[in-house]
Amino acid sequence: MTRQRLCVLGASGSIGTNTLDVVSRHPERYEVFALTGHQRVEELLAQCLQWQPRFAAMSDVTAAKYLRARLREAGSRCEVLEGPAALVDLAEHPEVDVVMAAIVGAAGLPPCMAAARAGKRLLLANKEALVVGGALFMAAVEQGGATLLPIDSEHSAIFQCLPEDRGTWGQRVSHIVLTASGGPFRLRDPATLSNVTPDEACAHPNWVMGRKISVDSATMMNKALEVIEARWLFDLKPEQIQVVIHPQSIVHSMVVCRDQSVLAQLGTPDMRVPIAYGLSFPQRITSGAAALDFLNLKPLTFEVPEQARFPGLFLAWDALHGPHGSTAVLNAANEVAVAAFLAGQIGFDAIHRVNAATLEALVPALDLDASVDDLLALDAEARRAAVVQTRALRP
Could you give the CA distance from residue 130 to residue 227 in angstroms, rounded to a whole number? Predict the structure, then answer.
């Protein structure tokens, strides 16, 4: 068996580390060719020493220089590249077969576009590539002949419930239902959310994730971004996407067919399951996740998401119905707002106010054939607008 050469973008994050855990169980199938990170040098150093990739890259130049020096001291022959362009180079490298796109935020768009255009097997955990890139990104996938496999547990679940022939999806599907855990504040009085601390917001009841994604889960902005992602992944109208709260995180999402049959994918809340599926599709390999014990499974419940508690969720449909580029504005505003909250500059409840105010203040005027540079310029403009909003809301 010829081993698949893997590039992990965002290797030191939770998706990256889970990817390497799955790969460790199948050394005959996969070779770690490249690992990338941003500033977490110690984590990437440890991974490089364990996996001995041919290349490592850090988007932060200072961090890359430090990593290079540490690897030389350790006698490693791993070549260290630096800067955002290095991530693009590795994502499209001719010797790479599989790209795990696990960078958080709009920074993941350029390497994801590069991997798509180069025709890679692209495991997409970076939802912002579709939230920001939308039609442009999907066109790159088609033009490059890439195999696009969603890694978010919800989108992987939908993909697993659909037939392999994408051309038949529109004939079969009435709508999809994305499930959400409800995060740590599902039962908390909305009037008390202004007092939430970053540590409380990051204490997810079911999943172990990075701090930014954990905050998004607490506000349900992660689900808003997933609604936008699903619109492009599955070529759906916004009205064909529903969200329900499912606190147990066992049913990962559902497809409602035109005949009203409902197809669902179930499993333990473990990201290694969709990662293993993406790596091995259309086959199946062991993931390391625990099996569901149906005889001892707690009751599965479903709830309507309350707008008073999760107002950010409903911005997804507003942005999808807005001018082209509105979803990119929403994503940029949210990244700025969450960073400000984690830094103690604004309250938890102000995240939504920043997002909504930025979306209202900045009406994009992009052409439908806007380029990546156009989208990144809009992203930068939206971030500046969001900073203005956060300053206005600082206590």
Answer: 11
Question: Rounded to whole angstroms, how far apart are CA atoms 147 and 142?
Answer: 9
C-alpha distance from residue 353 to each of 322, 337, 338, 346 (Å): 18, 9, 11, 10
Neighbours of 235 (CB within 10 A): 13
Residue type, 29: R
Residue 34 · residue 51 · CB < 8 Å:
no
Indicate if the alpha-carbon torsion angle 322, 328, 334, 340 is positive or negative. Answer: negative
Q: How many CB atoms lie within 10 A of CB 1?
A: 5
288 CB-contact burial (10 Å; exposed 0-12 / middle 13-18 / buried 19+): middle
CA–CA dist 321, 162 (Å, integer): 26
Q: Which among 140, 288, 316, 343 is positioned nearest to 231, based on CA atoms?
A: 316
Label residue 43 exposed, middle or buried (CB < 10 Å: 0-12, 13-18, 19+): middle
Helix extents (H) in the chain: 14-24, 41-51, 61-73, 84-91, 109-117, 128-144, 153-161, 169-172, 198-201, 211-219, 221-233, 272-280, 315-320, 326-342, 350-361, 372-393
- CB-based contact 120:146 (threshold 8 Å): yes
The pLDDT tens digits of the residues spanning 308-360 come to 899 999 999 999 999 999 999 999 999 999 999 999 999 999 999 999 999 99
Cα dihedral: 19, 83, 334, 245 (round 10): -10
pLDDT tens, residue by residue, 183-240: 888 988 888 888 888 888 888 776 667 788 889 999 999 999 999 999 999 999 999 9
Closest CA to 154 of 242, 38, 54: 242
Q: What is this structure's pTM? A: 0.92
DSSP string, 118-137: TT-EEEE--THHHHHHHHHH
Per DSSP bridges, beta strands 55-58 and 30-37 are parallel
